[in-house]
Amino acid sequence: MTLDSLRRLVLEPALSLLPDEMNSPEAQLMLLAIALQESDLDKRPLAEGGPHSYWQSGSPDEMVHFVLRCPVTRDLAVAVCDARQVPPVDELVRAALEHDDVLAAGFARLLLWTDPARLPAIDEVDAAHDLYMRTWRAPDPRPELWCEHHARALKSWLSAP
Fold first, then answer.
1. By CB count within 10 A, which of 59, 77, 91, 124 is most buried?
2. What is the pLDDT of residues 68-82, one digit of tens each?
3. What pLDDT does residue 126 have?
């Protein structure tokens, strides 16, 4: 999948399921950069019980559980699950992440929403990496690749119609 395809076919539909204030240039850029950082747009289970989406998250169990229970995201997560016809049950959502990219993008955006800090401006690369580290808690964060992935995501986002 290309970044442009990911934006058009996955991010836009996912963000349309959420309140308008959750869809911003900063949010789209973060989601594109994180997808590159986590999966390099090559997904599907890396290991038995392991990550299953472009926004793999260090522990999909933790991400799904947290987003479904956090007071800030709980109702929004249920609405995304309803729209994607997935019961808002941890095990069922985790299983659906493997084949429902829109659901995965929605949960990724909701995970970012749980952070109390504002989203970094599009040129705040270090702040974006800090947000990624706080929210994703990646076991292999590959910090040496963040600047490259952020730059690729920004270039793709800026060239979008």
1. 77
2. 999 999 999 999 999
3. 93
State how many domains the chain has.
1
Residue 55 tokens read as: 């926004």
pLDDT-based confidence at residue 115 (cuts at 50, 70, 90): very high
Average pLDDT value over all residues in the chain: 90
% of the chain surpassing 90 pLDDT: 71
Angstrom distance (rounded) from CA 156 to CA 64: 28
Q: Do the Cβ atoms of 157 and 25 come closer than 8 Å?
A: yes
List, in order, residues 6 or more apart from 58 with CB less than 8 Å away: 136, 137, 138, 139
pLDDT in tens, 82-107: 999 999 999 999 989 988 999 999 99
The residues, ordered by sequence, that sit 6+ positions from 80 with a Cβ below 8 Å of its Cβ are 14, 17, 18, 103, 106, 107, 110
Among 45, 58, 73, residue whose Cα is nearest residue 132: 58
Under a CB-based contact definition with an 8 Å cutoff, are residues 33 and 149 in contact?
Answer: yes
- Give the DSSP letter string of 84-145: TT--S-HHHHHHHHTT-HHHHHHHHHHHHHTSSSPPPPTT-HHHHHHHHHHHH--SS--HHH
CA distances from 90 to 94, 112, 140 (A): 6, 18, 24
